[in-house]
Design brief:
The complex is a heterodimer. Chain A is of the alpha+beta class. Chain A has 28 helices and 18 strands. In chain A, strands 10-14-15-13-12-11 form a six-stranded mixed sheet. In chain A, strands 2-4-5-7-6 form a five-stranded mixed sheet. Helices cover 11% and strands 43% of the residues of chain B. In chain B, a hairpin with a 2-residue loop joins strand 11 (135-141) and strand 12 (144-149). The termini of chain B are far apart. The chains are: A alpha+beta, B mainly beta.
């Protein structure tokens, strides 16, 4: 029976995509082999192995999905190839011909599958092809035919133990060809394995978390089972015993659930989530070049068996609803295969009904997309190069000689160049964009664990996961998000009883959302917890000397910003102020690295809202240029509040030499870049320069500069690593005239001035 | 900015033929040499953007066709007296382990072949100059002695590591 059962369109399409890609490569390899053979050259073992792998993995997946004829065809081809591989027979032209034919047939089958979602009705004559392969196998093993039948029957046996056809086969193969497999596994393959495995683990985690809420959702169980199975298969191929053992045990359990013999209970799902963590750390080890060993494997396996054996005695009453639903689904799919036209529609509609939480990323995968994987390194290089082009463009367009020509044709060409460069820059930036859904998904687990630990009930609502951000942004907001969410879950959301007392629903609510607003991405975490306590924060700030008595009536907004003060948070780790502030300065620091900012808003008793505002691009900034002696500095225009000339009467010289100016009743400390950077020791009165006031920090800070040069788009470059960390400078940029300007690291500078 | 835009670009990378070849330059009256395989190009002195908190021999950064590279004044690195830059002052751009650094020297002399057998190990006696630790060997060419420098040490000596440990 080759109708598709519960496997949905998505898996199948993935399988088709992967297989087609592999088959295309195989075809090339085969053609290469043929050429080689004709020229009388030697057969490269790697080529044979790569073809073998392709057929083997198609066989495995086909068997799993239930594509019987494809499974059989690849099986025969694989057997023949195995003979060649093991040196039982020499590769002949006839072999290559038939492999090419197999490959062609497989591709046609893939097309057929893609259109019909079923193997049935495939026009090609597979049986005939199979027979011809078998004949070749028999020919090739005529000399040492003794080993052959035994092997064949063994393979056949393994095939009967579906749905894991490659499992037993792999075990046997692994023994025979252990050494060979080792030689076969290249570092790239391991890397690929790590990437795939991480994806699989992420997928499983998501599904399990969803499963916790809807334990009878068959689709989720199926999906977890499939992922676990693929992981097991992959690990088996690479001979990672620990991983495949653990996966196998988990798979067995999932199979019980899947077949309705057991119901996934909360503690079991927790266990599997833990198992995932173990697997993940093993894979991380692997990524770091260490062996994929799972520490505490035996204990883990025992623990899993305990859960398992319990499961086999589940009372029949519990299983009935599931079985029913499973059967219903089967019927549904059968119906589908009958009515061909409606199929595509009903599949997708069924999907949306059953899984309302399906995210955009998943959806986009379900159509054949022309996506290629690109090395991040290459993308980074491209991005750098684009940066260079932006600079050279500005060199050309600001070139004084060209300007002096005042020719219309030159102007035209330059504006054309500018337009193209801008487009190129946008495109290159877009290529590095990644949707936030992956990161957001990980937060589900965090909240779940925190809620369980603290006996709270928390709903995490995720919106806007499809919003895309630059890769580097993703790296930088991951930690801050964890901090913020942890604060919300730990200290914001109250215990259920306390919540009900206040007339709120017992289940707390945290909303994590993202959206694009103008040139920024806003990532908002909003909870309906206890909110920040203004009085306590103020009291604390007063104790710490961050504010003075007279400031006690400052605006809420400023009070909230106090929690970002370094020192404020460390003192509060012991926590009496509803705990907020733990690591909040880390949040700010990380977000500032990507030139974003953090906004907090809170209503006591009602909840807190934290907004991370991050600029769309991190590589290019709009900066204000200013001259100090010979050096040119830049401050992001966004951070500048005002610039002014100060009258002497407004300057206050504090005892310790710190100058402060008074602007509209506000006191702003002044930082002399001249002194900081030892550019000049000529003390110059403040009134002779221009003070640029920035917005960062609790009270802001003023920089004394000699001259303001104007505003410009700057391509940020890091300072050469060779120089180490430079105080107060976050990077530099090359200007149109070839000069270098230094981009000031405001938060760092402010700390230097503000810390008593 | 009176930058010398004419740059001498040399074949980058390690080349067997480069073995034993040294680019020599002058500091004061003394001729020094660096292995040519590390040298990527020679440029005239140009505007150097200074940076705070650097050891005095690190002059700052320059813009080399859009690339920002740090510049070390070899004179100061050797603990010699500072001297104003003039039109003969050159920056030798060297590249080791993907790190590009510009070396400011009084002037560039020539490229010369110094066979292995003409190179003597540095003197064991440590005299007043602290530059001794950067010496790779003494090359004898006719009557002249070339001080051949260990580029690796020149760029990455412990002093720098200490520096980055402090900051």
């Amino acid at each position: 029976m080759s109708t598709l059962l519960n496997d949905d369109k998505e898996i199948l399409v993935d399988f088709i995509n992967e297989s087609n890609e592999a088959l295309e490569k195989t075809e090339l390899v085969l053609l290469g082999l043929e050429e080689n053979l004709a020229a009388g050259g030697d057969v490269d073992e790697n080529d044979i192995n790569s073809i073998f792998r392709t057929f083997h993995s198609i066989k495995g997946s086909a068997g799993f999905i239930g594509l019987v004829s494809m499974n059989q065809l690849t099986h025969e081809a694989e057997t023949l190839l195995d003979n060649v591989r093991k040196g039982k027979t020499d590769l002949k032209k006839a072999h290559i011909d038939i492999f090419l034919e197999v490959s062609d047939t497989l591709m046609m089958m893939m097309n057929h599958l893609h259109e019909n979602f079923s193997e049935e009705g495939f026009p090609g004559d597979i049986d005939e092809l199979k027979e011809r392969i078998v004949r070749l196998i028999d020919d090739s093993t005529a000399d040492d035919g003794k080993t052959k039948p035994a092997k064949k029957s063994e393979k056949k046996k393994s095939k009967k133990t579906e749905p894991a056809p490659q499992k037993t086969g792999d075990g046997a193969d692994a023994k025979v060809t252990d050494a060979m497999l080792d030689a076969l596994i290249s570092p790239e393959m391991v890397k690929q394995f790590v990437v795939d495995a991480s994806e699989l683990l992420d997928g499983m985690e998501q599904d399990l978390l969803a499963l916790e809420k809807a334990p009878d959702n068959m689709e989720l169980i199926e999906s977890v089972f499939r992922n676990m199975h693929s992981l097991k298969g992959n690990a088996g191929f690479f001979n990672y015993g620990d991983i495949s053992q653990v996966c196998h045990r988990a798979e067995t359990f999932l199979d019980l659930v899947r077949s309705g013999k057991a119901l996934a209970e909360a503690n079991q799902i927790s266990l599997i989530l833990q198992v995932l963590d173990f697997l993940r750390s093993a894979i991380e080890n692997l990524d770091a070049g260490k062996p994929a060993v799972i520490s505490g494997k035996i204990g883990l396996l025992d623990l899993m068996s305990d859960v398992l054996s319990l499961e086999e005695e589940v009372s029949p009453s519990e299983e009935t609803p599931e079985k029913a639903s499973a059967e219903q689904e089967q019927k549904e799919t059968n119906k589908k295969s009958e009515s061909q036209e409606q199929k595509t529609e009903s599949v997708s509609s069924k999907k949306t009904e059953a899984k309302p939480q399906t995210n955009a990323a998943k959806k986009s995968r379900s159509s054949i997309s022309d996506v290629i994987r690109v090395d991040v390194e290459k993308l980074n290089k491209l991005m750098n190069l684009v940066g260079e082009i932006v600079i050279s463009e500005s060199m050309v367009s600001h070139n004084p000689d060209l300007r002096a020509l005042e020719m219309e044709s030159v102007e035209k060409s330059i504006s054309y160049l500018q337009k193209n460069v801008r487009e190129l820059q946008e495109l290159a930036t877009a290529m590095r964009m990644i949707p936030l859904s992956g990161l957001f998904g990980k937060m589900k687990r965090l909240i779940r664990d925190l809620a369980t630990k603290n006996n709270k009930k928390i709903d995490l609502i995720i919106n806007g996961g499809e919003t895309e951000v630059d890769r580097s942004v993703l790296e930088h907001i991951s930690d801050p998000l964890v901090h913020i969410l942890r604060n919300s879950a730990d200290h914001g959301i109250e215990a259920p009883a306390a919540r009900e007392e206040k007339g709120k629903p017992g289940t707390g609510r945290i909303e994590l959302s993202a959206k694009q607003v103008g040139g920024e991405i806003w990532i908002i975490v909003e909870d309906d917890g206890n909110g920040l306590n203004r009085e306590k924060i103020l009291k604390k700030a007063l104790e710490k000397g961050l504010i003075s008595e007279s400031e006690m009536d400052m605006a809420d907004e400023k009070v909230w910003n106090l929690i970002f003060q370094p020192g404020f948070s460390t003192a509060d780790k012991v926590s009496d102020i509803s705990g907020r502030g733990v690591g909040m300065d880390v949040v700010v620091r990380n977000v500032e690295k990507i030139r974003g900012r953090v906004e907090v808003d809170s209503t006591q008793g009602q909840g807190t809202r934290v907004n991370l505002r991050i600029p769309l691009t991190t590589a290019i900034v709009d900066g204000m240029l200013m001259r100090v002696e010979e050096t040119i500095y830049a401050i992001p225009t966004l951070d500048i509040k005002e610039s002014l000339q100060v009258g002497e009467q407004n300057v206050v010289d504090l005892m310790d030499g710190q100058e402060v100016i008074k602007i509209r009743e506000r006191l702003i400390p002044i930082l002399r870049l001249h002194e900081l950077h030892e550019l000049s020791f000529k003390a110059k009165p403040l009134s002779e320069g221009i003070v640029v006031v920035t917005e960062k920090g609790a009270q802001g800070i003023g920089f004394l500069v000699d001259e303001i040069l104007g505003q410009q788009q700057l391509v940020i470059k890091p300072l050469p690593e060779y120089l180490g960390n430079i105080k107060g400078v976050s990077g530099c940029a090359v200007l149109g005239n070839g000069e270098i300007c230094l981009i000031l690291d405001l938060s760092n500078l402010i700390k230097m001035v503000e810390v008593p | 900015m009176e930058a010398v835009d004419e740059a001498v670009v040399l074949e980058p990378g390690v080349n067997a033929a480069n073995e034993g070849q040294f680019l020599t330059f002058m500091i004061g009256e003394q001729q020094y040499g660096v292995e040519i395989k590390y040298v990527t190009e020679i440029i005239g002195i140009q505007n150097i953007t200074s940076l705070p908190d650097l050891p005095h021999f690190m002059k700052g950064i320059i813009n080399l066709r859009g690339k920002v590279i740090p510049v070390v004044d070899v004179r100061l690195r050797f603990g010699m007296e500072e001297r104003d830059y003039d039109e003969r002052t050159c920056i030798i751009v060297v590249s080791i382990n993907d790190t590009n650094v510009g070396l400011v020297v009084d002037t560039v002399a020539e490229v010369m072949n110094i066979p292995e057998e003409s190179i003597e190990p540095p003197p064991k006696v440590n005299s007043k100059a602290n530059g001794n630790r950067f010496i790779y060997g003494l090359g004898k060419v006719q009557d002249n002695v070339q001080i051949l420098l260990d580029t690796q040490k020149l760029l990455f000596d412990e002093e720098l590591e200490q520096l980055s440990a402090i900051t």
